[in-house]
Amino acid sequence: MYCQKCGHEVKLTDTSCAFCGTLASLMNTETKECKQCQKQIPVNANYCIYCGHDQAQLKWQSKPQQDIEDKQQMQTNTTQDWFSNFQDEQEELKQLFTQYKPKSIENLPKNESRKPGLITSTKLMLRDWLTINKRMGLGDFWWGYAGLWCLTILFSVCLGAIVYLLPSNINQDLVLRVVVFLGMCWALLFYFINFTALIRRYHDAELPAILCVLMFVPFLGELVSLLLAMRPQKNEFGWYSFEDPFKRRR
C-alpha cells in the first residue's frame, strides 16, 4: 500500500509511514474515490493508498471519436436551425414592415401606363372618360390632353374636307347646321373628357376635386385649372388608386 500523505510505499504491517510518519489509523477515515483506480480512499489523502496516484493531478478522460462527432454534428445542426429561424423571422419582419408601413410616393407608380405616350395615354383617357374615382398620373394626363387636341384638329380637318367635297347643289343652310351640331357635340365631349381626367389628376395630386369647376370660369379659369394639374403626385392620405375600386368589387 501507499502512504496517503507522501505517496511512498509502506507495508501493511507498519503502523506509520517511514518517510513522513503518518499513522496508519488515519487511513480509516471518511473516503473518496481515487481519480486513477476509482477505489475508496481517505478523503484527505494526497495519494491513493492502492495505486499511489497523486490526487492533485487532473485526470483527462478521452472521449470516443463518435461522441465528439455527434457533439459537433449537434452543434452544426443547432447553428443551422438558428440561422434558418433567423432568416424566417427576418422575412416575416420584412413582410410586416411592407404591409404596415405607410405608402410613400416612391412606392407608387408615377403613371398608370408603363410608358406614357400620345397614343397610350389618349386611349387611357378615352377609356376612363366616365370614371372619376381613381388617379391619373402626370404624364398620362398631359399626353392624353395633347392627344385630345390632336383628335380635335383631325376631326375639324375631316369635317371641313367633307363640307368641301359636297356637291354645290345641296342646301348650304342644312350643311352648316349639321356642321355646327357635330362641332358642338365634339366640344361637349372634349370638355367632359377633360373634366373627368382633371378630377383624376387632382386625385393623384390630392387636391380637392371641386377645383375642377374653375375650368368653366371664363378667360383664366381653364388656365388656372391646368396649372393646378401640373402639381406632382402625392400620397399622404392614401386616397384612391390607379385601379378602379368599383371594378375590384365585381
Q: Supply the number of helical segments.
A: 6
Oligomer: single chain
Helix and strand element order? EEHHHHHH
* Helix fraction bin: 40-55%
Rg measurement, Å: 49 Å
User: Which structural class fits the helix and strand makeup?
Assistant: mainly alpha
Largest sheet, order of strands side by side? 1-2
Q: Which term fits the overall shape?
A: rod-shaped
Q: For the residues shown, what is the average pLDDT?
A: 78
> Distance N terminus to C terminus?
99 Å
Beta-strand percentage range: under 5%
Give start-end ranges of low-pLDDT stretches: 101-106
Specify the biggest β-sheet. Answer: 2 strands, antiparallel
Number of strands: 2
Give the arrangement of secondary structure elements.
Blueprint lengths: L30 E3 L6 E3 L22 H36 L17 H10 L10 H28 L6 H34 L15 H8 L16 H4 L2
What does this structure look like?
This protein has about 250 residues and is mostly helical. It is about 50% helix and about 0% strand. The chain is built from six helices and two strands. The chain has helices at about 65-100, 120-125, 140-165, 170-205, 220-230, 245-250, and strands at about 30-35, 40. The chain has a two-stranded antiparallel sheet. A hairpin with a 6-residue loop joins strand 1 (about 30-35) and strand 2 (about 40). Helix 3 (about 140-165) packs antiparallel against helix 4. The chain is rod-shaped, with a radius of gyration of 49 Å. Residues about 100-105 have low confidence and may be disordered.
Give the key terms.
rod-shaped; two-stranded antiparallel sheet; 250 residues; mainly alpha
